[in-house]
Amino acid sequence: MNPYENLPNKAFWKLAVADRNNFEIEPLWTPKFRIMPADAVATFGSCFAQHIGNALQDRGFRWMITETPPAGLSPKNMTAFNYNVFSARTGNIYTTSLLRQWVSWATGESTPPDEVWEGKDGIIDPFRPRVEPGGFESVEEMRRSRAVTIDAFRAGLEKARYFVFTLGLTESWVNKSGGYEYPMCPGTVAGTFDETEHEFVNQDFLTVYRNLAASFGMIRRLNKGIRFILTVSPVPLTATNSDEHVLVATMYSKSVLRAVAGQFCQKGSAIDYFPSYEIINSPVFRNAFFEPNQRNVSAYGVNFVMDHFFRCLVAKYGEYAKPGASRGAAVAAKMSKADEVCEEALLEAFGGAK
Prior knowledge:
five-stranded parallel beta sheet; 11% strand
């Protein structure tokens, strides 16, 4: 008698993987929570997180939008102005340190810095550099807009039953004298780079973990009943400043983030992890889910991941809606690669500059 004799099939590579069609390998997730259609779900994080909200909404679940678009705004302009991309207009929150920064603003534990960037046509918010195409008309308008987003972000934290956060990067850019972080290196999307003031930091495991723990601690003080679902973005880095090959830098970044997510989910019953990263990147799937550039996840890949999410919920807890409520193909069509709002992708424009 030994511990392996009574393990289920999923514990053995041959039974769970090698002997199965690669598109029928499941379930890869045993959810901790019975998410119901009426439960408010807030979504934030890196580019890939944008698909989760759309998938929830398409299947009749309550994707929580706390910063709604103006009446009459077209779907195309909603995306361009960062409405209905995440639960509020924060833009991409790539790192756990950026999450901690946003949560600290929302809780009033700190206030946003006074820094302002001037663009070609208007004022740019250094912490949401692409939420307003062309920029704001004035510094006052920019600050009012950010204040609205901070209030909306806080409302999401206070009212959400589930907070879904997708970890995206370990590489970050900080203001040395101010001690705050930018979502993008100054001088790329906007702003001016100053090597005496702007510092590159490639965060290690402890830094990522501690910032995530601090963020969740602050959120729980606002909402004791909130539950967290972590994912890791499967999208490789567009570019790296680490002096490593971008492929090696990507593996470092994703490995750290995955290790943090795994360690964090062992802390208690209120934190779960969904393996979107594993589904897209496992060699078992033979690179079937990427576009030809080997970076962007295809609509088919997004749909496959989100269908797996809901199948696993049904497998454990039973049907959550009437048959036919899931329209997976519509989810994939709703937000294509071209629709993603992803500041980091703009770094590609600097390749070949030398």
